[in-house]
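Lab notebook, bench 4. The sequencing result for the construct came back, and we need a structural model before the next group meeting so we can plan mutations. Quick request posted to the team channel:

Model the 3D structure of this chain.
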Amino acid sequence: MDRLIELTGLITQWGVDRRIVQNATAFAQTRKTHEEFCELVEAHAGFELVDTPMQSAFWLRNVKDAIGDIYVTLVMVCACNDTPIRMELDFAQIGGMEKGPLKFIESLIPDLIRDAVEDNTTVRITARRIVCGLMALCDEMGLSFIECVELAYSTIKDRKGTLREDGVFVKEESVSP
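Done. Here's the predicted structure in token form:
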């Protein structure tokens, strides 16, 4: 859990450094969460339907990527709502996953959006419930949740640019010698 706390801090700082936390809204970030969830559903379906090891590896990589990306968006949702996600708390066993982790997460996305629109402090509770679903999905698929988050962070950490107050992200161009 220490590594997740560390990664959460790094992700939050990444969002501050790119002015996402200061200039985005929690609602805008929930749209990113929804987009990443759709990618997770697609990747999970692809993984379930494949019959070769190469195809399986491709879809599994996409599942891991989507799980990590969802976590990044949840950290941003909470940071933009000024209710930082609390990953240092113990995770309690929660009910509602009888139909599986994906259905559980799907059922929480509208709650996350509502909480963000209402600028509600329960946004972090809903985000943590989604994280519980992501962890359960990782367990079901034999994945490490921490590895998924590390994959997402390693992908974004070197991206340059900032989010302007008008909501436009301006990529910083590399200057070649």
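The radius of gyration is 16 Å.
Will bring this to the meeting.
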